[in-house]
Amino acid sequence: MLVATICRRVTSAFSKGFGAVALAGLGVGALALATLPAKANQIGEPVPWGMGLQAAASPVKERIESLHDMVLVIITLITIFVLALLAYAVMRFSAARNPNPSRTSHNTLLEVAWTVIPVLILVVIAVPSFRLLYFQDRAREPEMTVKVTAFQWAWEYEYPDHDGLKFESYMVPTENLQPGQRRLLDVDNELVVPVGKEVRVLVTSRDVIHSLFVPALGIQKYGIPGRTLETWFKIDRPGVYYGQCNQICGVNHAYMPIVVRAVPEAEFTAWVAEAKRRFANDATQPAEPRIAGAEGPGRGGQADEARGVQLAAGANDNISR
Fold this sequence. Notes:
Strand content: 15-25%
Largest sheet: 6 strands, mixed
Number of helices: 5
Distance between the termini: 78 Å
Structural class: alpha/beta
Shape: elongated
CATH superfamily of the domain at 144-284: Cupredoxins -  blue copper proteins
Order of helices and strands: HEHHEEEEEEEEEEHH
């Protein structure tokens, strides 16, 4: 009795203390949110020790979050139920309590229940899942189109609706980072789009399979040589949204970041005019990827290509032997 009393008091004190801390934390959080600018630009990027999904910046990502939350509740309930059932079975049907165990091998009602209930759960998950798949499949009424071509190890962006504006985007090497730029995430040329416009994205590849992945926008689409796949997004607030190629595509796979910058319509129009002048001459494009190679900073392009040829030759030699 004494031990039980002590445990109850400790638990009560801990609960009260934890509750006070939680309330204080909520108060500080609410104050911080209240002091934020109402129209602050959102930054979609990974954060240290981050848990959960990045904040949604598009209708597709909002639906992904909704489906994720619903499935999380379902699997949590299933886990708790199974754990409780196992605990009950261990205690209720232990050898000490049942020296003569039951010989029952069939129970029609129970067998029907454990077949029908999982089917119903799968249907509950499948309906919103298929709706989401069809919703994110392709744009209904696209207001502009962007073609994304992946290659080892960078991206090419083309705006067919803006006189074929086209440019390549490379990761900024660590030694060239400017204050405020993010290592392994920032690029020299960002993909700029207007806020509130439904953007159709056509994805393909020049060489191997790549993958266009921007978590905050809820898009992930493979770039496959010889094929053009479609996805879309509609960013509802200005901001900068980071992504990466998430399909292993070679030695410099880790150096293919994506930066999508959403700006107001007027700012986008001005950017298009400036970009047309900037990228009018193909000579402005880099001759080779300006990225950190596998053998150290500053290497890449021809060095990596030569290394790849050597590795392939060695592999072929081993096969022939």
